[in-house]
Design a protein that fits this description.
mainly alpha, about 90% helix, transmembrane helix
Amino acid sequence: MSTDLQHLKDAGIKHFHHSESTLKAKRDEIKKHYIDPSLKKVSSHYEDKPFLTALLGLFFALSAVPIFSFLAFVLGATVVVGGTALAFSLAILSAVIGTASLFLLGALTIAAVTAATCCFWGVAAVAVVKLVLHLTSASDLPSGLKAYQRDMHALLLGKGKDNGKSVSFEETVKTEGTKE
């Protein structure tokens, strides 16, 4: 009797280890093919345009619950109402989903306004802190303001790839001033 139980125990442990290795392989495959490339893309987008990435991230985070609630409601309403007569259920279903979509529109509007407000106040706070830091660490006011302007330009508009030739005011004045 104990050999039969030992055999079943060994088979169960072997099956468990096989399932565990299969799950680890699938997890690693999903991480390699989906998660890592997505993280690299988001990271590079954040490096190029941090303000836009923060705004979109906040919007997606704030709108995930209303969207999933809406989808769950639509699925539930379809299952519940779908059991009745076809014409009657389609009429009720369209009215119910239409009403729910109005609630979704309101929730997404609130999420967008909240995300924009959070980003605005976040950028405003960072701007004030950076201005104070640049002005206190600069040797004179113009150099502090120029450093602040460069820093804020990179923060708000991103470092981006410059396809054209950038023009410096000082270089243009020097070049234009030498021509007679």
